[in-house]
Specification:
six-stranded mixed sheet, Chloramphenicol Acetyltransferase, alpha+beta, 2 domains, 16 strands
Length: about 450
């Protein structure tokens, strides 16, 4: 496989950001969030090679338009508290990929090959304060296939925001592809929903350090796929063994199983090993926020318990208790600055301390996110994934394309992974890195 960069430029918003929007204050959640680039890959089936130049032209034009809406992404961080929306633009690269067909990659997904598909191999790299908040690379295969890679700075862009951005961009591009000149009311310039400077305002809160995201180059990652039929078996197991959990969800049972297998593999103590779950606050705030709100609208839930059915119960119970307290004290009439400070202190110290031991397993679920809705005008993606996260004991859950199964990417030290991927209980339900069928 050979990759050649054929163009590199900055795409600026089609409409200049007005003066009253030039300063973008970030939230207290954004304030402590790390500045690493989170990578996404969108794979598209073979199209006509002759159309690729036209497609790239449309992609640049529609990206410029969507940046007039998501204008902070075209700016630069001034400091840990705000973004200067100066329209410097986002880095946009185009690459030609030769020596391999897209279908070959899909038949045997290989993390090492993915590295070439990301712009400047920025995946999970630290973003400097003056660098592009968002970076895009369009990979054009000789066979006609296209892979769009997007690296978004987690400091201001959580997974919900990232997928909303890509989907809104694809909608504008699809209109261009179909030569439609109409623009949806939801895509008018500056119609950006943000809660950072209102509900989650930093205000007079003290400065906290960013959460330390320890990169470990010895980490290896594996992809495990749970088909719908296997997930049903897991649900039945939980229902049979528990009288307190009704109708466990896909995410609950997969999260519990992975946690159990990781703890067992590492020889840890269930009662002292935290399960760290990222919780989306949007629909849990009072009143609920729009799903289109940008920024990091997530917080951390810590759960501990041993057996599979008990863990499912603890996840559900913990989430219920979380929703009773955090949304009220994080925003609205009951906003509690002392509580917020204590939470910020707890997260920044607890997560950082876990780098010195293995007592924390970090989970992020992207399930039910609109990952497969990004139709740029040549069909929906045949596969959406991310790159290996070089953080110890990190787990990312994503929907399969049919929406019924779950793909799980697990990061561990090499010796631990050798044992984990052979776990008998895990392999009863999961396939290891199967092919992607188009």
């Amino acid at each position: 496989m050979e990759m050649e960069i054929i163009s590199r430029e900055f795409i600026k918003p089609s409409s200049p950001t007005p003066p009253h929007l030039r300063n973008f204050p970030i939230s207290f959640i954004d304030h402590i969030t790390f500045r690493y680039y989170v990578p996404l890959l969108f794979f598209y089936n073979d199209t006509k090679v002759s159309d690729q130049k036209s497609k790239i032209s449309h992609l640049k034009s529609s990206l410029s338009q969507i940046l007039s809406i998501y204008y902070p992404f075209a700016g630069r961080f001034k400091d840990q508290r705000s973004i200067e929306c100066n329209d410097q633009g986002v880095l946009f690269l185009v690459a030609n990929i030769t020596g391999i067909k897209l279908s070959t990659i899909l038949e045997n997904p290989d993390e090492k090959l993915f590295d070439h598909l990301f712009p400047d191999q920025l995946q999970w790299k630290l973003m400097e304060w003056n660098e592009s908040i968002l970076v895009v690379q369009i990979n054009c295969f000789a066979c006609g296939g296209i892979v769009i890679s997007v690296c978004t700075c987690h400091k201001i862009i959580d997974a919900t925001t990232a997928f909303n951005f890509v989907n809104d961009w694809s909608k504008l591009n699809r209109e261009q592809e179909s030569e439609s000149k109409s623009t949806s009311a939801s895509l008018l310039p500056y119609n950006l929903l943000y809660a950072g400077d209102t509900i989650f305002s930093l205000g007079n809160l003290p400065k906290f350090p960013e959460v330390d995201f320890a990169i470990d180059k010895t980490i290896v990652c594996k992809r495990f796929v749970f088909e719908a039929s296997k997930i049903k078996l897991l649900k039945n197991l939980v229902n049979f063994n528990s009288h307190v959990v009704e109708n466990p969800t896909r995410v609950e049972v997969i999260t519990a199983l992975i946690y159990k297998c990781v703890v067992s593999t590492l020889g840890l103590n269930f009662k002292t090993t935290s399960l760290q779950i990222a919780v989306n606050l949007r629909k849990r705030m009072i009143p609920p926020l729009s799903n289109k709100c940008v920024g990091n609208l997530v917080w951390i839930l810590f759960v501990m318990n041993p057996e599979l059915h008990d863990l499912v119960f603890r996840i559900r119970q913990g989430l219920s208790e979380f929703c009773e307290v955090y949304p009220k004290k994080f925003g609205g009439k009951e906003k509690d600055s002392s509580f917020i400070c204590e939470c910020l202190k707890q997260v920044t110290t607890r997560v950082s301390e876990s780098d010195n031991n293995q007592s924390l397993i970090a989970y992020a679920s992207w399930c039910k996110f609109p990952m497969y809705e990004a139709d740029f005008g040549w069909g929906k993606p045949i596969w959406v994934t991310t790159s290996a996260c070089p953080a110890r004991n990190a787990v990312i859950l994503m929907d399969t394309r049919d929406g019924d199964g779950i793909e799980v990417i697990v990061s561990m030290k090499k010796n631990d992974m050798v044992r984990f991927e052979c776990d008998v209980e895990l392999l009863q339900y999961a396939s290891v890195n199967p092919s992607i069928t188009s």
